[in-house]
Amino acid sequence: MKKSIEKAEILLEALPFIKQFFDKTIVVKYGGNAMVSEELKEDFARDIVLMKYVGINPIIVHGGGPQIGETLEALGIKSKFFEGQRITDKQTIDVVEMVLGGKVNKEIVALINGHGGSAVGITGKDGDLILAKRHRKMKVSPETDRPEIMDLGLVGEITQVNPKILETLDNNDFIPVIAPIGKGENKETLNINADFVASAIASALKAEKLILMTNTQGVRGKDNSLISALTRKKVASLIKSKVIRDGMLPKVNSCLEALKAGVAKTHIIDGTIKHSLLLEIFTEKGIGTQIVDK
């Protein structure tokens, strides 16, 4: 009886959040180890289906870096990176599109549908959802000590999001599952960072929340303890003092861009925790770092 009462109390704790987020859109970036563990994959699919059944409109943007790396290695194609981004030539982009738009995307769709959801897999090329241009970075040449343009190949920088296809899917109660590739200015396929895609889509839809699932708890302070809540001003201070750096920096910047565009709240959570999505959305304290405008 005690366990049954505890379950009822958990449901009651979730009730205010269910009411608050009813009919609201939540964009989830799904990646990291949560996409590798079979148990966590099943849990994620169930969490998404539950969100849909209580009236939330989830949209999933997924990564797939490890899966791309494994396939490239199996084909004898060497992976090259610059500042964490994969240098993507024509041979590599074919693999990227095959793995992200095919294998990974359809596996997520099948998992969600297997738990009673109605998911549809698309890429940023479908319905011209994501238009992009080639992304180039600057680096300082050690020979000349001058900045040079680093060509990353078929890596994209988002220029426009056309959410009509997402609105059509939502109006028909489907759950969109989006592979982060877009259409370039010359109709070429471009590989785009999944965090940036999730942020851009959340921004275009003025989503209630953007949630980035990672392999870490969230943003950590100087003492390495989790910071549960941050404002834009505090984030700027932590970036300046280099507390926020390396791989966390693009995630935090993705959150800031979404907030700037009108997304109500953004979150960085540990996807390796069982039911991390539900814990972040439906509990008072949450489990990760919440970033708000002010």
Protein topology:
Layout: H1 2-21, E1 25-30, H2 38-53, E2 57-62, H3 65-74, E3 81-82, E4 85-86, H4 90-114, E5 119-123, E6 130-140, E7 147-161, H5 164-171, E8 175-179, E9 181-183, E10 189-191, H6 194-205, E11 209-214, E12 229-231, H7 232-240, H8 248-260, E13 265-270, H9 276-282, E14 289-292
Helix pairs in contact: 2-4, 3-4, 6-8
Q: Which topology does CATH recognise?
A: Carbamate kinase
Any idea what the CATH superfamily is called? Answer: Acetylglutamate kinase-like
Please report the first level of CATH classification, the CATH class. Answer: Alpha Beta
The assigned CATH architecture is 3-Layer(aba) Sandwich
What is the count of β-strands? 14
**Mean pLDDT, nearest integer?**
90
Strand order of the largest sheet: 5-8-2-1-11-13-14-12
Describe this protein's structure:
There is one protein chain. The protein has helices spanning 2-21, 38-53, 65-74, 90-114, 164-171, 194-205, 232-240, 248-260, 276-282, and strands spanning 25-30, 57-62, 81-82, 85-86, 119-123, 130-140, 147-161, 175-179, 181-183, 189-191, 209-214, 229-231, 265-270, 289-292. The chain is of the alpha/beta class. It has one domain: 3-Layer(aba) Sandwich (Carbamate kinase). The chain has an eight-stranded mixed sheet with strand order 5-8-2-1-11-13-14-12, with helices on both faces. It has a two-stranded antiparallel sheet with strand order 3-4. It has a two-stranded antiparallel ribbon with strand order 6-7. Helix 2 packs across helix 4, helix 3 (65-74) packs across helix 4 and helix 6 (194-205) runs parallel beside helix 8 (248-260). The longest helix is centred in the middle third of the chain and has 25 residues, at 90-114. It starts with a helix and ends with a strand.
